[in-house]
Design a protein that fits this description.
Blueprint: E1 21-26, H1 30-41, E2 46-52, H2 55-61, E3 69-72, H3 81-91, E4 96-101, H4 103-106, H5 108-116, E5 121-124, H6 135-146, E6 176-181, H7 185-195, E7 204-208, H8 215-226, E8 230-232, E9 244-246, E10 252-258, E11 261-267, H9 279-290, E12 294-298, H10 307-315, E13 319-323, H11 333-339, E14 343-347, H12 349-361
Parallel strand pairs: 1-2, 1-3, 3-4, 4-5, 6-7, 6-12, 7-9, 8-9, 12-13, 13-14
Antiparallel strand pairs: 10-11
Amino acid sequence: MNAISGTVRRRRSEGGAVPPIRLMIVDDSPVARAVLSRMVAADPGFEVVALAGNAREALDALRTVAVDIVLLDVEMPGASGLDALPDIIQAGNGARVLIVSTMAEDGAEVTVRALAEGAADTLPKPGTGSFAGRFSQVLADKLRRIGHARRQQTSPTASRPAPLRLLAMPDQPLGCVALGASTGGLHALVEFLRALPERIGAPILVTQHLPTVFMTYFARQLETASGRPASLAVEGRTLVDDMIHVAPGDAHLCLVRQRSAVRVRLDRGPAPSGCLPSVDPMLASVADAYGATGIGVMLSGMGRDGLIGGRRLVESGGAMLAQDQHSSAVWGMPRAIAEEGLACAVLPPRELARRISERARA
């Protein structure tokens, strides 16, 4: 592992203030490591505590250095960043990974695979010699949003989160499952879908905050990971049980009931959250089309998208489930549902899938 210069290492905040976010930069290019280090060192909220030229050096460093975020390149000698990603996450003891790579720009498949493997977010690396402009600001914003690592609590006196109020799960038949996710959500989606039984007898809707260019690869990734058909939602198409219907990147996935069939209606109007696609219209539409037989599942994501639609679904007699804080890369969207008292359960994705399975068998 490369040594850290004194100009890169930041002093901890004084006076009991929140400590800086501890970073490791993993890149085979010394120039890239130096430039990225200078960028984050300019902000007192960050501290570069380790540099590594390849995945093996990164894993060695994580044995002794506590890190909040690993900035990981994809193309490196030996094991690629993607190949090493699961091991780095496991060794990081709560550290999250931000992929910083040129392949994150044009390589949609690389981006989707990284998110599916557990990366918290991705950021395209500027071309050689063009590390200026807004890149440093965008990088800093992403690092702040990812934030400090959540370490395993080993002390019996460690602080516990405030108790949440949970609603009872309705006992209606299962009509539809609608999943909402954003940052860190792709990995959670894969875990959830893999844990579902082969047949639940209901269509599955997915709204994930991703650019339009990624959506085809995203649907393909979900199909491969879950072993069930998945496709982008098409205007007027009838929902099919046990099929994953994915919101396209340029429209909200909404529904309309026509006699005994429920069909897709794509809406491109503004949503309260400002997101496109947004979880709010999807959940509100499930409330209108399915009522008490609809279930919404809120997975990892930043912000509060889905809260308005989730409340409407609960008010219609349906149910909301939320991912728990420890398993979420970003506990924003599920936190909003949980803290508003709208959730029937707050659990890791696999356990949420178990609750859906129990409801499907009821």
